[in-house]
Amino acid sequence: MTNPDAQEHARRSLRLSLLSTGLALLIAFVLLVAHQYITGRRLLLEELHTEAAIIGANSVATLVFGDEKAGREILGAIRLTPRILGAALYRADGQLLAREGEGGIDFPASLLTKAADTRQDSDGAATYNRFGLLGGVLREDIHSEGATVGTLLLRVDFASLYWRLLEYILGVIAIALIALALSHRFTSRLRMRVASTEEQLENLALYDQITGLANRRLFEQELRKAALRAQREPLGAALLFIDVDDFKKVNDSFGHEVGDQVLQMIAERLRSVVRAADTVARIGGDEFTAILFDIGDPENAAKVARDMIAAIAEPFPTQPTPSHVGLSIGLALMPADGSDPVTLLRRADMAMYVAKSQGKNRFHFFSESIDARVRGDLQLEADLRQALKHSDGGLWVAYQPQLCTLKKTLLGVEALARWRRDDGSAISPGEFIPVAEKSGLINELGSWMLLRICQDLAEMRAAGVEIPKVAVNVSPRQLTRGGGVVEDICRTLESYGEPVERFEFELTESTLMDEHGAVVLDAFRAAGFALAIDDFGTGYSSLGYLKRFQVSKLKIDQRFIRELPDNEDDAAIVSAVIKMAWALNIKVVAEGVETDAQATFLQAHGCDVLQGYLLGRPMPPEALVTYVRERWKNGG
Q1: pTM for the model
Q2: In contact, 50 and 83? CB cutoff 8 Å
Q3: Region 34-47: what's the mean pLDDT?
């Protein structure tokens, strides 16, 4: 059976060989071209000097007698030489006698004049023989009987050099391609045989011959690596010991050949569940293992186990009737359940037998406490999904009043998600909100909350109570959707006729520093929403970010309020936050206010808004209507 890893190894070896060969050929090619260019340039300049000398010799009489017409006739010979674009004869005094060349070719009227493309020697005379990549000017002094009678300037072009160089390069490339083709033809069969042999040897040594998965030997190597890696990295890893339930019935009913086919299909389904970086192995008979890297929370490993069970639950297309098997899976965590490979394998095996003893086709963690927590979270997630799908699922929104510190008037409310089961028991937000975050349900929960808030506001308005401001928490997970979350919010408010000015969105301090969060915060501000920083003092927000995003409120975390006014450290922190907010023109909200002493301290130090049990607990909309009517029935 062809193994992908062996094929990749062969391809990598071939690429490395081709790369090294190609690099050597490239270096040789560059050196040859450079040598050819240097040699060709030198020969070209020698030829040009020879031609200049010939023209100069023919021009002696012309220069001596100052015959301009004869000079032009002599220079006209350059038309037969394409590499000479123009020529000029100068008398001994440096004055131009005659010139010849194509339009645009210019020569100075005097060699004593400093032009843009000349330089002067110590006696002030202009000198030439300046060459660039494409051409230049060649100077040839003309002598007669030991005296200088004039000077010849030639404007020369190196195009012919580059054409010859191009012909040389094309020739070398053609020869190289022919050589490579012949070499590839002679060596390809040999490479294929070597790669095939290596692949067969690797398959026999490290891979299961029926499923193509890693065998026990390779699995043990990978497990040792995973155990060491899990000790160094914070996200850890998980080992899954997988036993196929009732596989013996497949062999007994259909024979071992069909049994092997089912094993292959089981292997394919297991591989489809895990990531490419994870390892799935068959360690014998109907026993498989999987190593999951960087799992983070144990719940992630549980989800993989659950997906494996679901994938195997689908019937296998055996003839004449489909086959049904299940999985019993034991999970051991690294490094929590050990760092020794033998110990980890034994503990995962023990957990698998617990799963099998509980009725098969299920998974179990080696640690009872982790198993109980993960199962609880998975059940909570399933229940939350159902609650979000049905209007009577028990979800509702509670509203906690926010009052002006000085006047005790209602400035707004904070909307809080609440959940009550069918039996009347309440589920704490501290339980279901983290589950919603991990599972991604927080986006759906946020959309449901906004719809419910709009409906509640309409009902309270019909009852004669208008809520001036509603604060809504936004999860960091929601911000990963980018500006789309703001667009959805605006569409919802528009459909209910609610103004954006009525809504204020609360975010954590870390959101300010997050790249995705910054984009969404800009979108919130552009849409006209007010922004508040929740639990201020527990993060590391920058004052510059507070100013950039035009934060309107800071909510001091209740842990700093709880021991006021007796705790001097908390009192100093709260006082400093209030003063800082004043300087930035930001209002301050104190949450968790439960005593008159706390309220008095906060009022004395200039806190703007109070929120807490002292002023009102979170309550359903009908209770909020009663709260508002009774508290302000006499005008406040």
Answers
A1: 0.54
A2: no
A3: 88
